[in-house]
């Protein structure tokens, strides 16, 4: 496996070593605490389990593959920042048990890898987080909240976005519901479910379509 030895910005050397040690442990343990073969997440059939649990895809992908895909977009980042982003996506994916290509698909649909992207409703950054949601997440993951500018920091945005997606997955135990909640908010999903209404498929279909294309390209 190829590795890019890339430091995360804002970390001192000692803190970085501790962070990587924690990631190495949680990468093996965290998903298995919640999802097992006999009780996997649902929502998209077998693919739900593969995206969140099956490590074969992730083990075949490394930082360099992710970096090459990121560089196919106009990110506005420096080469060093793109390398740091690739490294962060890889490690955070391993931390939560995601297939890295699945996360790349979400970021592609959300912002096309533009760290300064702002949606029509005010969601910001790479993983398009609303300021109110970002403030809440920041307190949960021990990230200093410095207002909306926090969401333009690629490292913080990715860390918060992946945590929030996992939080929605734990809440609903259904990948489709978790994706809709990530995009539209859990309040919207809860309201639709309470009224017995069908949730829209547009966002989920976009993400899964992008994911399938990335898989076919073979990073």
Give your account of this protein's structure.
The structure is a single chain. This protein is mainly α and 219 residues long. It has a single domain (13-217), classed as Lysozyme (Orthogonal Bundle). Helix content is 62%, strand content 0%. The protein is built from eleven helices and no strands. It has helices at 13-34, 46-52, 56-60, 63-70, 79-96, 100-111, 131-140, 154-172, 175-184, 186-194, 202-217. The longest helix has 22 residues, at 13-34. It is globular, with a radius of gyration of 17 Å. The protein starts with 12 loop residues before the first helix and ends with a helix. Residues 90-196 form the Transglycosylase SLT domain. GO terms for molecular function: peptidoglycan lytic transglycosylase activity.
Write a concise keyword list for the protein shown above.
peptidoglycan lytic transglycosylase activity, mainly alpha, Transglycosylase_SLT_dom_1, Transglyc_AS, 219 residues, Lysozyme, Lysozyme-like_dom_sf
């Amino acid at each position: 496996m190829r590795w890019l030895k890339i430091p995360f910005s804002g970390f001192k050397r000692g803190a970085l070593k501790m962070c990587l040690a924690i990631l190495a442990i949680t990468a093996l343990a965290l998903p298995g605490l919640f999802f097992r073969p006999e009780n996997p997440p649902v929502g998209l059939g077998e693919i739900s389990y593969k995206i969140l649990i099956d490590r074969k895809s992730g083990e075949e992908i490394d930082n360099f593959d992710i970096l090459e895909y990121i560089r196919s977009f106009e990110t506005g980042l420096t080469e060093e920042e793109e390398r740091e982003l690739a490294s962060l996506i890889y490690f955070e994916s391993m931390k939560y048990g995601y297939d890295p290509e699945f996360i790349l698909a979400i970021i592609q649909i959300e912002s096309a890898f533009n760290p300064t992207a702002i949606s029509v409703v005010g969601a910001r950054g790479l993983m398009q987080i609303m300021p109110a949601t970002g403030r809440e997440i920041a307190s949960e993951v021990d990230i200093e909240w410095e207002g909306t500018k926090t969401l333009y920091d690629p490292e913080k945005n990715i860390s918060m976005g992946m945590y929030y997606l996992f939080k929605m997955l734990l809440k609903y135990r259904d990948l489709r519901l978790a994706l809709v909640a990530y995009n539209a908010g859990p309040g919207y999903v809860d309201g639709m479910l309470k009224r017995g209404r069908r949730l829209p498929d547009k966002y989920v279909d976009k993400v899964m379509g992008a994911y399938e294309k990335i898989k076919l390209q073979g990073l």
